[in-house]
# Entry
Amino acid sequence: MAVLFLSLLTCTASGYDIDASMLPMEINETVVSLYGNEFTLTGDWTGSATDHFAVMIVAPDVIFDGGGHLLGVTLADDSIEEYAQNAIQVTASNVTIRNLHVHSWDHGVTLDNAGDGIIESGTFTSQLKSGIGIHLCSGVVIQNTVIDSPLQNGVWVGNSHSIQIHDSWIHDTSTGISVQNVTNSDISGNTITDDETGMVIVSTLSLIHI
# Structure
């Protein structure tokens, strides 16, 4: 796993710029204590078949700005879920992911057991599984996002509550938005086109404003 070096982190008025050569990297509480909680990517990066993520965020209250840059990958031959290659993995609360272009990978962004996160103004293309995957989360907002041509789902949400999916465009996938065991959530203002199935809702009570 990459170790953050001072020479490759540049202080700016809004936080720290990350040189793409530092990927893959983990943003944990030690990194936040040293550099603050706002990070901006400064270049494109393509991972290899042995890279399971580009950025893993395990510290709360982090803002990760992709700066409009591309995260790509060479996919491994295996497709076992525990070995999935996910561009951004989040397991902490109140994390914002924005202005990012993700191409390929198994999943573009995954949030697992996290609360109050935001994914916004991103572009996700040609994921093998889902553009965005959310599991065991609450208070997550997805907005102003483009998801084009993932193989399985544009957005998948499972065992979560108080999820908002707004003003996003999902195109050419098996299922545009799939929700399972999700409550008290809002899915509105989205454009879902050329998908085999627009939405799938399974075992969901007191759901959703659509």
User: Anything to note?
Assistant: The chain has one domain: 17-203.
